[in-house]
Design a protein that fits this description.
Order of helices and strands: EHEEEHEHEHEHEHEHHEHEH
CATH architecture of the largest domain: 3-Layer(aba) Sandwich
Structural class: alpha/beta
Helix content: 25-40%
Strand content: 15-25%
Shape: elongated
Strand order of the largest sheet: 3-8-7-4-5-6
Number of helices: 10
Number of domains: 2
Radius of gyration: 19 Å
Distance between the termini: 5 Å
Length: 247
């Protein structure tokens, strides 16, 4: 049985709560310090009739569309989701024809390109894009209409309790799911974690891209998920816990 460890989750809600529950099921204790908060934008959405499909790179886009009461007119469109979790949430909202890519933007581009769609793709997105879907699909002869429907607003400070725990070395590891979250943490947490401690504090990252800002700020113990998914992150967290505490 895995002894109880303590980790820090930096992803936004409601995903942070879901991750905390999954870690608890693995007998890993976790605190939550979301470094971004989603805000739905007052978006002017184009008419759904003009599109052959919908592309999704985040569940946050679905949540924003739901808050904008915009899902009903889109449910008859094929949905191309970046990964299984986003695909699952699309099905939960009543989308019937949902195709999941392999968790990365590149895999989503390939999946859409191979579908040989006969019209433009609607891409409800975040205000801060980590990749350019329209640019990536242009060589395949596909037009993508990108409409920002939400913004992830960065926190301006760490919660005092979390900052204190970081300074005290309370956490056995920190989980990071996006490059922007990692960048925000480096900006806010630098004073709480001196450089010598950064070299010893393990960071569990969804991908190399997510880890890059942490490496630049001298976090040396970087663990990378073998697939950009929550299942892979949980498997990595469990393997790390067992390595530290024994089976």
């Amino acid at each position: 049985m895995v002894k109880l460890m303590r980790m820090l989750i930096t992803r936004p809600e409601p995903d942070a709560q879901a991750t905390q529950e999954r870690l608890a099921a693995l007998e890993i204790s976790a605190d939550i310090a979301p470094l971004m908060t989603r805000q739905t934008l007052r978006a002017h959405l184009p008419p759904a009739e003009g599109f052959s499909a919908l592309a999704l790179t985040s569940s946050n886009a679905l949540r924003a569309l739901s808050e904008l009461d915009a899902t009903a007119g889109l449910r008859n469109k094929p949905v191309y989701a970046v990964g299984d979790r986003t695909a699952h949430e699309a099905r939960q909202l009543g989308f019937d024809h949902v195709i999941a890519a392999d968790g990365t933007l590149d895999s989503l581009v390939t999946t859409i390109a191979l579908a040989r769609l006969d019209g433009p793709v609607f891409y409800p997105a975040g205000k801060h894009l980590s990749g350019d879907l329209a640019h990536a699909l242009a060589p395949h002869g596909l037009m993508v209409v990108t409409t920002p429907v939400y913004e992830m607003v960065a926190e301006t400070a760490l919660p005092p309790a979390i900052e204190g725990q970081l300074a005290e070395g309370t956490f056995d590891a920190i989980l990071f799911y996006s490059r922007r979250t990692a960048e925000i943490f480096c900006a806010l947490g630098a004073s709480a974690v001196p450089e010598p401690d950064r070299r010893k504090l393990p960071v569990i990252c969804l991908s190399e891209n997510v880890a890059a800002p942490l490496i630049e700020h001298h976090f040396s113990r970087v663990l990378l998920a073998d697939h950009p998914s929550e299942d892979a992150m949980m498997a990595l967290a469990l393997a790390f816990a067992r390595e530290q505490t024994g089976p």
